[in-house]
Amino acid sequence: MFESIINQISNLQLTNFEWFFAFLGAFLLGTSKAGLKGIGVVIVTIMAIVFGGKQSTGVLIPMMIAADIFAVIYYHRHTQWKYLVKLLPSMVIGVLLGVWFGNDISDALFKQLMAILILGIVVFMIYMERKKTNEIPKSRVFSNGMGLLAGFTSMIGNLAGSFSNIYFLAMRLPKNEFIGTAAWLFFVINVFKLPFHIFVWKTVSVESLKLNLILVPGVILGFFIGVKIVKLINNQVYRKFILIVTAIGAVIILFR
Fold first, then answer.
1. Are 231 and 35 spatial neighbours (Cβ–Cβ below 8 Å)?
2. What span, in angstroms and rounded, lies between the C-alpha atoms of 179 and 201?
3. What is the DSSP string of 18-34?
4. What is the pTM of this model?
5. What whole-number distance in Å separates Cα of residue 233 and Cα of residue 55?
6. Long-range contacts for 12-19 (Cβ within 8 Å, ≥24 apart)?
7. pLDDT, tens digit, for every residue of 150-178?
């Protein structure tokens, strides 16, 4: 009965099993935006299994914006605007490159290159952590490179989190500042991406928006549960959690 009612609303013929995973993906998206970073790959993988690769990006983008709004409101006071200003210009360029190359690049090659890049940078970050150094990379090449990769992978597969996570860890932002800055960054970028999904890739439609209305309660529930979990994690454990989950995410990208 539940399956029948929802399918009538959305005109999508999904099984109860598929609806369960769609809600799970929405719930995890909420927890991710609340601060449990690094699980973006799991979310994208779940949604791709249910809706297909490219189509799932259109299903995700409105829900991501909704979750971003909650995150911006809740963590606004912790935002470090100078890091936002450093990343945004190169991220915008990365998004535009993603729009341009999105239909041509081999999905297999894209996943392999991104996984290798993420794993390489994670290894570098672990090395920095073990050295116990407080040195912060100040090179514009580093910030522009991370921004470009984050923007490109954000448009192609909603997978920018790995690169932005690594950048904010390298900047040694405390937990709340990390989450607050990322909240504003992705709110701006996701709003910027939305017209391309509607008018260029045509992955956002009236039907996909109806589906979003059904799934958004899962996002909201995930956000508030995520906030409670994040409060229990101290800064040092949080840094280790992000590194470990980001590395696991890169492995999932490589083999999914």
1. no
2. 30
3. HHHHHHHHHHHHHHHHT
4. 0.86
5. 35
6. 12/207, 12/211, 14/50, 18/50
7. 898 888 877 788 888 889 988 889 999 99
